[in-house]
Amino acid sequence: MKRDVEFLQDVSLDAPLRLGIAARLAYPDGSMTASGLRKEAGRGRLAIERVAGKDYTTLSAIAEMRKKCLLEPKGRGSGLGRNAAIRVESSYRDRPELILDGGRHIATGCPAGEIAAAEARLAEYIATKYRPRRKERDIEEIKIADVLTIYLEDRGETISRRSELEERLGRLNEFWGAKTLAEISGETCGAYVTSRGTASGGRRDLEDLRAAIGHHAKEGYHRGSVMVSLPPKGLSRDRWLTRSEAARLLWACWRTRETQRAIPTVKFPLRHIARFILIGLYTGTRAAAIAASAPARAEGRAYVDLERGVFYRLAIGKRATNKRQPPVPLPPELLAHMRGWARIGLAGDYFVTWHGKPVKSVKKGFAKAVVVAGLSGVTPHTLRHTAATWLMQNGVPIWEAAGFLGMSPEMLARVYGHHHPDHLRNAARKIAGKGKSRDALVVSLEEAKKRRAENQKT
Predict the structure, then answer these.
(1) The CATH number of the domain covering residues in 243-419
(2) Which residue of 4, 135, 353, 357 is surrounded by the most CB atoms within 10 Å?
(3) pTM of the predicted model over 0.70
(4) What is the pLDDT of residues 381-418, one digit of tens each?
């Protein structure tokens, strides 16, 4: 394939090419494949021809496809909305990479194929091209794209999982970017939820919009009141693991072997998930903090003091957020496991690693373990639900369990309190009791006369 691509460097723009070769010529960084071109053809963006059962296209057809894929600005959008139309134009010739901004082409100074350098130049271009206005204005004048941009610039570094925040703000900007703050209403919020497809996803995005508007108001950048209408909260998840289910899940992680050509090997690809599960069940810690747990102090790591048996869940150098991560003493059983992992070399820089490197997400491996164990409705966050449920079932006082888990007592009582053995027991015991007799509050007139007569005799 590589020799074919080198041989065809000077091919005509209208010459028919097999999809794989066309993808390599048009996208020299290797980011596009024949499968990707077929998907674009299925969406009606790319013209292909089928001859003798084989699919062909041309470089000029790919150029037309790329024009159809450009994101255009909505009205006079700014900030995130304006930047959405600015892209690096990949070259399929020896021309240098260009920044495409509307109808303008700006040279990056980067040779064709040097995508990383061109994208860095693109970031500099966007940063110098636009800055949202930071002065008090009426809500009829302020684009929501400006509000989202200011929020990301000011608060982005303090929010955990920034990439997820940027993804949500990007979705918000596609719908709201060209609108003004004055256009936010119950009707437009409902339209956004409909376009989002799910009430829970729409609510989560609109919570970010509300936070961005709140920050904008707090900084004194707008006059007037803006109310974001949220859909009702969904039902809280009540899925937790019984102890037998937890054992099945751990056993599935421990014994599952990797197979090659239907032959089991001596590799156990899910054992790092077993370590993740044990930490989650014994401490109720969130997935990101478990992934960052480490036996040594370092920037960005959640330090586990194996000598004192304390798990400092907030990563070193990171700010505390509303997701509480207080230090927690390790249960003796878990501490013994973690000391053993460190002693035999399973815990290098981190306790949960894959091929010696820290894991950013265990969703894929965890999902496989759930299937192997024959369970359903179980996610990494289920481990936190399980820890809270077990604490309640064992009769731990709510305030103590809340401190251990890093959640408010009110939240714990509302979501998990019904698992506590003392939950409403006093009411259940006393509802059938006779109780203490009380004097009647209403006395008949006849009884009152008799009592007065008896008192007069005495």
Answers:
(1) 1.10.443.10
(2) 353
(3) no
(4) 999 999 999 999 999 999 999 999 999 999 899 888 88
